[in-house]
Amino acid sequence: MTDTLHHKGRRRQLVEHLAERFPFNSKVLEAIGQVPRHLFVEKGLDQFAYFDRPLSIGANQTISQPFTVAMQTHLLALSKWDKVLEIGTGCGYQTAVLLEMGYRVFSIERQKSLYLQAQNNLFATGYKTAHLYYGDGFEGLAQFAPFQGIIVTCGASMIPQKLADQLVVGGRIVIPVGATGQTMTVVKRLDDFSFEEETYGDYSFVPMLPGKV
Ligand code: SAH
Known about the structure:
The protein is α/β, with parallel strands linked by helices and about 210 residues long. The chain has helices at about 5-20, 25-35, 65-75, 95-100, 110-125, 160-165; strands at about 55-60, 60-65, 85, 105-110, 130-135, 145-150, 165-175, 180-190, 195-205. The strands form two sheets. The protein has a seven-stranded mixed β-sheet with strand order 5-4-3-6-7-8-9. Strands 1-2 form a two-stranded antiparallel sheet. The protein binds S-adenosyl-L-homocysteine. S-adenosyl-L-homocysteine binds near residues 63, 90, 206 and 209.
């Protein structure tokens, strides 16, 4: 499947819809306008790819709805070349958006089948510079730390300490926190020992689970 004029038109409409809902950073909207979301979702669901809704990506997981992807990317508020760690690669869509932002992207997925699927999706769509890892996101990637930003795309019951430790001073984690429903939370590292939290409304994510499968 390719990226046709029809898909591009639908994508432009999605971006307009997002811009009406929230004053997102224009770079975030441009990035969403570039990534062919229909090439990341399950076959047969591509016709729904440009609706603002979550979709199945197999393995009992979902790709977040575009509004949520835009909001998490907006809240990361990083600069070009910054190093970002994503927890929950899923189908690789959010990873592609982060690459479009010009960040250096590291991403961890705990399900082997999705890790492989993301690799295929990203390669097929020309996003070849992401550093993808199969592992447990609770561990982070200490060997590449510190990160300017960490984005968690699954719901965590608490803020994982190891992730907070892998942040530069001045960096931030964007993480949905809560066992059932989640509150979008931004954790800023103020210095070696202190962090500050801000919240940004309620969301519903698949859970962050320990270990890899
Ligand atoms: N960013 C993804 C969202 C996928 S849904 C996308 O754009 O498609 C969240 C993902 O987090 C799922 O694939 C799930 O398997 C993964 N996940 C859950 N707990 C995890 C953990 N501890 N480490 C890494 N990935 C995890």
